[in-house]
């Protein structure tokens, strides 16, 4: 079994697109049934306060862009998302801290539902523009992904729950040289960063598989 580790943040539009590009690239890989995909946590803005500032204004200020420049980047992300069948509403989100989302993702992983939870969280954030920083929204999307509501509320009520797991993922990303997401590591030997094409992911998987077979 070949392992691919994937670091993303639900607040990141390029992760929303990059996850889908990777999936399409994996679907075209001949040995896809022998690939284990492990999703890992990464916070783009770990010191952010919870969602209050509109995303366009917040990110433009963070990177020194004009509002027009940030809208253009949002529209670029939307076009890329739409091209692979993902819905994306431009500019309606808010800026916030995703630590609780990552903690719930680790909780979901204990039930084999991490992928379902993250799919739902990305969709809520980018296609539905509900706030992933709102407790009841998080409870609802986690329940829709298959997690028991009582368990979700218990995790959210305990700031220490799964905090170490999130920090461990982030330390590992730093050790492997990641300073942004999406970030993919194949067999702990090959790194792929950014929004690459599905074809590029297929080639990377093929090369990693061939090298693994030759080792």
Query: What would you give as the CATH superfamily?
Result: Glutaredoxin
Q: What is the rounded Rg?
A: 17 Å
pLDDT under 50 segments (min length 5)?
A: none
User: What is the count of DSSP helices, taking H or I runs of 4+ residues?
Assistant: 9
CATH classification, class level: Alpha Beta
How are strands sequenced across the largest beta sheet?
2-1-5-6
Would you give the CATH topology? Glutaredoxin
Average pLDDT over all residues: 95
In percent terms, what proportion of residues is strand? 5-15%
The beta-strand count equals: 6
Structural class designation: alpha+beta
Number of spatially distinct domains: 1
CATH architecture: 3-Layer(aba) Sandwich
Order of helices and strands: EHEEHHEHHHHHEEH
Shape verdict = globular
Structural account:
Helix content is 54%, strand content 12%. With 215 residues, the protein is of the alpha+beta class. The protein has one domain (2-46, 97-214): Glutaredoxin. The strands form two sheets. Strands 2-1-5-6 form a four-stranded mixed beta sheet, with helices on both faces. Helix 1 (13-27) links the parallel strand 1 and strand 2 (35-41). Helix 1 (13-27) runs parallel beside helix 3 (67-83) and helix 5 packs across helix 6.
């Amino acid at each position: 079994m070949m392992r691919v580790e994937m670091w993303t943040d639900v607040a990141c539009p390029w992760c929303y697109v990059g996850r889908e590009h990777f999936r399409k690239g994996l679907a075209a890989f001949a040995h896809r049934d022998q690939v284990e995909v492990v999703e890992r946590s990464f916070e783009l803005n770990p010191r952010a306060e919870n969602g209050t500032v509109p995303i366009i204004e917040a990110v433009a200020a963070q990177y020194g862009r004009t509002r027009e420049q940030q809208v253009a980047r949002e529209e670029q992300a939307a076009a890329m998302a739409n091209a692979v069948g993902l819905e994306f509403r431009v500019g309606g989100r808010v800026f916030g801290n995703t630590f609780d989302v990552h903690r719930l993702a680790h909780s979901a992983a204990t039930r084999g539902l991490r992928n379902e939870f993250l799919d739902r969280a990305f969709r809520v954030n980018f296609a539905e523009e509900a706030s992933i920083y709102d407790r009841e929204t998080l409870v609802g999307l986690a329940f829709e992904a298959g997690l028991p509501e009582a368990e979700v509320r218990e995790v959210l009520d305990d700031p220490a729950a799964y905090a170490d797991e999130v920090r461990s993922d982030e330390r590992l990303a730093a050790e492997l040289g990641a300073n942004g997401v999406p970030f993919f590591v194949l067999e702990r030997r090959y790194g792929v960063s950014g929004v690459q094409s599905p074809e590029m992911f297929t080639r990377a998987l093929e090369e990693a598989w061939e090298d693994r077979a030759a080792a």
